[in-house]
Aminoglycoside phosphotransferase domain-containing protein (Cellulomonas gelida), 283 residues
Amino acid sequence: MPSSEERLDTRQRELLAQWLPGLRVLHDHSWGLVGTTVLEVEHGDEHLAVKAGDAADHHLAREITAHERWLGPWTTTGRAPALVHADRDVKLLVTRWLPGTLVLGSDAAGDPATYRQAGTLLAALHAQHAVLDDEYERRANLRLTRWLDSPHRIDETRVRRIRELASTWPTPPARLVPTHGDWQPRNWLVDGAVVRAIDFGRADLRPAVVDLVRLAAQEFRHDPALEPAFFEGYGDDPREPTAWARVRLREAVGTAAWAFQVGDEAFEAQGHRMIADALTAFG
């Protein structure tokens, strides 16, 4: 097997050989910070993507669920990769290769037209299903507590303030929709004038506003013209102020703690800035 496939375990290699005998690896797109292997491959005349998770992975199952339940509005129009093979137990996924270049770092990253399309895509994902969940807010608060209890470099004064705030938060029923979970230019492709979506390892049922947090902390903050373009595509702004403030702070803490634990110092710094910004909403 090529060296890029050596990170796959025995079961993954065996299953991949059954699905795609004689495949040829074209490029290794693995990120490196986490244990997910991402390979661009050829099998006969097929151009495919292979994703495999390590023993600690909990993202491949989410990605498979997204493909099975929620990506239809995108895959039917060529805006997301179509599923070819998947096995949750083995943590292995094969999809069609999606043409395009990454928006992050390209000229498209500063083009309002990109965000208009991204808003339209996200609206289609969010609109297809909704459920009321009486326990979501309580679970979200527990996740916040777990992040605060885990290793991080968040200032202890801020930690105390966040714990105090969270102890007063209401837990109303939440309207959950299919969300991407990491909706930002590093997970968008542009092919000519067409924007497409990739990487569904954080997909889950959540409040729609969760998919706006990274954009608000990054692109909308750096270029205010991108926000109205996005909502031209998306439609009404779902950010009710009090719920939005809770979501922003939870996501900020998770960002800072996760980035510290995987050694991504730049993303950790962004998480600390997100915490500072989010706390301003609470005075």
The radius of gyration is 19 Å.
